[in-house]
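Forgive a beginner's question, but would it be possible to get any protein sequence you like and the tokens describing how it folds?
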Amino acid sequence: GVVAIQQLKKTIAMMRLSEEAVTEGLVAAAATMEKKPAMLGKLTFLSERAAPEAARKAELRSRFPNWGEDTVATLQQAMLENLYKEMCHPLPEGSPPPPGGDVLKLSDFDCTRLMNETQEAKKEAIRLAEEEAKEAKKKALLEEAIKNASMPDKGKGRA
């Protein structure tokens, strides 16, 4: 995620790699992943954020053998949003969006939107879990009542 992107940027800078060298490396890496779209997707995701110009020149999005660029764009957007939502999930309600949106190339608006969506989903999951627990308790009480009603009275004498 964010740390991997930052480390890749730092490595490129520390090694003083030219954009051309990074582009060549991305092309070579992508060639080894043509039959591994999940890996190629991750390479594309990281590269577009750590070395966007080199990723563009390497034409990574066009290297998926069975997917068009629209499909790749949709999958990349889903990967981005899922990653950021995972970052939002552990935060308590009312927290600001987590840092790292800039590294992921998300706007402030999108960070806030994804944070709100995550918090709403957490609230809904809690509500559903509570509802299921209430239903389970009702069912258990009903089963117990039926069981008790169907058992003959023990130890009670009838007059």
About this structure: Residues 108-150 form the longest helix (43 residues).
